[in-house]
Design a protein that fits this description.
alpha/beta, nine-stranded mixed β-sheet, seven-stranded parallel β-sheet, 23 strands, binds glutamine
Amino acid sequence: MTKYIFVTGGVSSSLGKGIISASLAKLLQARGFSVTIQKFDPYINVDPGTLNPYEHGECYVTDDGAETDLDLGHYERFLNVPTSQANNVTTGRIYQTVINKERAGDYLGKTVQIVPHVTDEIKRRFCLLGKTKDYEIIISEIGGTVGDIESLPYVEAMRQMRWELGATNCMVIHLTFIPYLNAAKELKTKPTQHSVKTLLSYGVQPDILVCRTEHPLRLSIRKKLALFCNVDLESVIEAMDADTIYDVPLLMLKEKLDITVLKKFQLDSKQEPDLTEWKTFLGKLKNPLREVSIALVGKYNELPDAYKSIHESFVHAGAVNECKVNVEAIHSEQITHENVRELLKNMDGVLIAPGFGERGIEGKIIAIRYVREQKIPFFGICLGMQCAVVEFARNVLQLDDAASIEVDSLTPYPVINMMEEQKNITQIGGTMRLGAYECELEPDSHAQQAYGSKTIYERHRHRYEFNDHYKKQFSAEGLVATGINPKTGLVEIIELKDHPWFVGVQFHPELKSTVENPHPLFVHFLKAIMAIGSE
Ligand code: GLN
């Protein structure tokens, strides 16, 4: 029988429920259990695909084309197993299902209510992954903070599950914050006591407390937390701030979070935790032999979470190359012909970020011209690739005013165009080219050297495409298509000849980089940069 762990948050948002959930899952996986994590988001959007990155950071896309919360990226990066649409559920999706059922007459004349109809639908979703796949343990992260109005139905559904399944099959882990008052030189437990009381008022007694803190929790504090929050002493887990998120599984191992969980579930560990690869990665991450600087040119730079997966991909690729990667965020709106040299002169490589809309486009194009002419390694992702195509069209092919039709629908040279099937779409949500598509690589291209195989599958999230009509013109001047979708003929990768490394990809490689499988394009981008540095 599948066992269920719920992770709630208290006192404050942004405590890292996603990282704690992923770290616990990693430890259980390392002990031989099959485990997955799902995220429940209490907002009304059906999925985060329609959210501006400033709201919730990056939108993470799964193989099956779901637009999801960025925490799913952490789950994949830690566990090295793909997630899917079922791993992320929002209130919008829950209500949509309930309302559709009501319209279909499925409730047989009953008054449809939050309890039991919405809570039943939440419970059905809690258990869905357990029904489709053979998971021994399912961790469900409940978004938001306990006490929020919108998360109440989730807390009630969780309470019911805990009551129905009992302590050996279901548990609640409450992630909380222990503030340090500098004036009193003391850690304070009161906010946590209040947060647990709020949970208790909903009928939920947490089984384990994971306590975020900037200072170690002395025994006296642990005892106080245990006594006033009604948990055993060994269920008070310290979660100290870490240098890197990748330290957290080891911190949780030290605190015996995994052992405490298994004990409560009356499960025997199947093996001693096998974290060999993880520790090798950490060793390399912390002892780099080299250092490089890469400009990340984007327009959402105020919020690093907007490019979460790109940052993490550089961490993974840096570790394999034993190289510290300093990612310098450069705002595309600030780049001009006059300052581009100054802004990029100390950069060993430049990555142009994905994005939507007109803002910041011209700055990206100016940066690309500079790195193309100066032969600085370049990596363009999605919009970044499209901008490289536009730059080349304007400045090499002399197609004045060439553009993507996303930015200029009247351009005389629509080098980035919209696919026929996209033209009649009026709804914004969930209608882009989404999810994994096949791509075949040209022999001897940078891409083929990086992947070491002919066929790859990468995840997409975009509406516009390279316009085939111009393909010959581009390749005659040296910008060649080195990755093609074999079913549709769409151009997925472009590369520039006579340049150390100039690669643009229509897909999102950053979504598939994990600790155990750093993404080959990121790894090779770094290798190209390091090769230049050591010439
Ligand atoms: N805005 C572009 C498109 O829709 C690129 C999208 C992206 O970078 N993810 O095609």
